[in-house]
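stage 2 :: seqdesign
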């Protein structure tokens, strides 16, 4: 049966893919966004769809909407963007999430929170399982995001315990794909844009830190499976568990773009996690989740996207 689904942050990178997929399944989608890091361009191909509605709104302010389900994605995701106005990032994760939970409670809607691998901080357990409580600096430059997302999880659980709100928490690991912002400073967009322009590829630190990269279609499938799963709240990891050093990753981008760019080193930002890889055991067991897109295939699609927007 068609549902009415509110997606906050729907004009962002992941939100636009999620909107597309949920519309394709026949649902009504209300996309709510303040366009801080998202853009109309990401969803312009959906604007003619009668089942798609766009609202410019900031979740830090309350809003009255009727919906069966809420996917709460509103929050800048890249370090450059979430540090641009750190206090606003915390407000989005505390006041914004409280508003969305209030809405879910009143409308009796299910709500899914886009949490993050950053709740594990610079992890002392590897790979990261959901029962690991994390190693997070409360006062550093990443804290507005990491701690914001941790409070958001707490709020979700408290609304569940106190008001019986049907909540879902998904911990997203580094996700990439078409419609990532060209200027968001994340490693995938930076390296691809640098390689395509023939500019130096900037590795922060010695490049021995690791990340595990997930193609956006795999993630979106995981999010929808979690929303549809009865009697399971999470938190659950979603991502791809193939792990690469940033140095290896730079080599791969150079090769796939056939680029002559030089690899250069820049200072490592503070609190940059040394390693990160999801333990996907719980996601596999509860959601039958299995990432399907191999890194080279996903990167080629992403490189084609960046070529098209850079008109190369
Ligand atoms: P994004 O920056 O492309 O999307 C975020 C969207 O939220 C944007 O459209 C932005 O304009 C909107 N937004 C920000 N603050 C808002 C506010 N106060 N009110 C209304 N809208 C607001 O980022 P993304 O990569 O698509 O990330 C989406 C969600 O997934 C975020 O919550 C992020 O924390 C989470 N996440 C992403 C990743 C990743 O690797 N991409 C990893 C972990 C978690
Ligand atoms: N990084 C890098 N060069 C860049 C951008 C990022 O070496 O131009 C590194 C960054 O220091 C981190 C990793 O790549 O170790 C992933 O960074 P990103 O900002 O994409 O995500 P996050 O740190 O939030 O996982």
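stage 2 :: out
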């Amino acid at each position: 049966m068609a549902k009415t689904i509110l997606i906050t942050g729907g004009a962002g990178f992941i939100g636009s893919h999620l909107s597309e997929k949920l519309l394709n399944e026949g649902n009504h989608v209300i996309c709510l966004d303040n366009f801080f890091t998202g853009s109309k361009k990401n969803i312009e191909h959906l604007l003619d769809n009668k089942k798609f509605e766009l609202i410019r709104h900031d979740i830090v302010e309350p809003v009255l909407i009727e919906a069966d389900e809420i996917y709460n994605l509103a929050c800048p995701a890249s370090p450059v963007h979430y540090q641009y106005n750190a206090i606003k990032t915390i407000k989005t994760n505390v006041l914004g999430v409280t508003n969305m939970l209030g809405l879910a409670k009143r409308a009796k809607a299910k709500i899914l929170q886009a949490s993050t691998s950053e709740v594990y901080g610079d992890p002392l357990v590897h790979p990261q399982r959901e029962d690991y409580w994390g190693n997070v600096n409360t006062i550093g430059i990443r804290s507005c995001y990491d701690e914001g997302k941790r409070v958001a999880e707490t709020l979700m659980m408290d609304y569940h315990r106190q008001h019986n709100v049907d909540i879902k928490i998904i911990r997203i690991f580094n996700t990439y794909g078409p419609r990532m912002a060209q200027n968001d400073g994340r490693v995938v967009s930076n390296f691809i844009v640098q390689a395509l322009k023939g500019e130096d590829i900037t590795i922060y630190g010695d490049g021995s830190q690791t990340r595990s990269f997930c193609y956006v279609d795999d993630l979106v499938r995981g999010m929808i499976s979690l929303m549809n799963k009865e009697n399971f709240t999470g938190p659950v990891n979603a991502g791809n568990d193939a792990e690469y050093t940033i140095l290896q990753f730079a080599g791969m981008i150079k090769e796939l773009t056939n680029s002559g760019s030089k690899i250069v080193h820049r200072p490592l930002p503070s609190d940059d996690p040394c390693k990160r890889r999801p333990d996907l055991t719980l996601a596999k067991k509860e959601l039958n989740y299995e990432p399907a897109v191999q890194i080279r295939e996903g990167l080629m699609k992403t490189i084609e996207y960046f070529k098209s927007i850079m008109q190369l």
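stage 3 :: structure notes
- The longest helix spans residues 86-107.
- The chain has a mean pLDDT of 97.
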